[in-house]
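Chapter summary example: a protein plus glutamic acid.
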Amino acid sequence: MIVTRFAPSPTGLLHLGHAFAALTAFQTAREKSGRFLLRIEDIDVTRCRREFETAIYEDLRWLGLVWEEPVRRQSAHFTDYENALRKLDAMGVLYTCFCTRKDIADEIAGASAAPHLTLQGPEGPLYPGTCRNLSAEERNIRMARGERYALRLDVGRAHESTGILTFVEEGRGPEGEHGLQTVEATCLGDVVLARKEMPASYHLAVVNDDALQGVTCITRGEDLFHATHVQRLLQALLGFPQPVYAHHRLLTDETGKKFSKRDKAVTLAKLRANGATPNDIKRRIGLAA
Ligand code: GLU
């Protein structure tokens, strides 16, 4: 049976883009008599707010969505993510990274004389790997000194251990990719999986929860297409089953810019207050009313 999910982060009010993502996941499950889940991705406790979570429930109910209870709230499951992290650590695919944002920017600027050494990812320059080969001695000294550190995934080493990986794209990626995709694990570089102030990163929590909740089909915006490569690698490392992916187009405003949480005019709350009906919303985002 198909299981889909909508997994918003309660860092603002939902807008038309979210309505499209939520309805796509819901209708995909409905069309195939499957299950639809809602998950609250609130691991970033500094940015997530309870009132936005309440607004998410209100907006989605108003749109006509029905989901299974109880809703999984990631902030209640940090120990799950710690366990996953421990497994990865035991595989030797994590390393401690002491770099601050500034260290990374400086390192990249310093390499600009040799730009071929700075790898570009779809979201900007990749982490240059400064801490990847720190000696155990240096690492221990810096930890003992109380320096803050993050845990990064050594994607090169991790991918070597899994061998070639693929995933099925039933929707489309940013370049129109469709069908069987070969994982390019290094496309986002050595991603951070945990930090002191945030003990689990988005990639780690999402992969853990999709597996735990038995999600079989992941519908989400094509802006997360590259994240799928890393997440597929994490699934393979952690022995999780493989969902299929259906990345969808991103809604844009009249100027072609994608909606953001700052666009107050297109929040569902605002549109509703101005008299829009759920069918108006569906028509506006190009879904059957
Ligand atoms: N929580 C993520 C977001 O709000 C979406 C995660 C996902 O669909 O994988 O962007």
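Key point: The longest strand covers residues 35-40.
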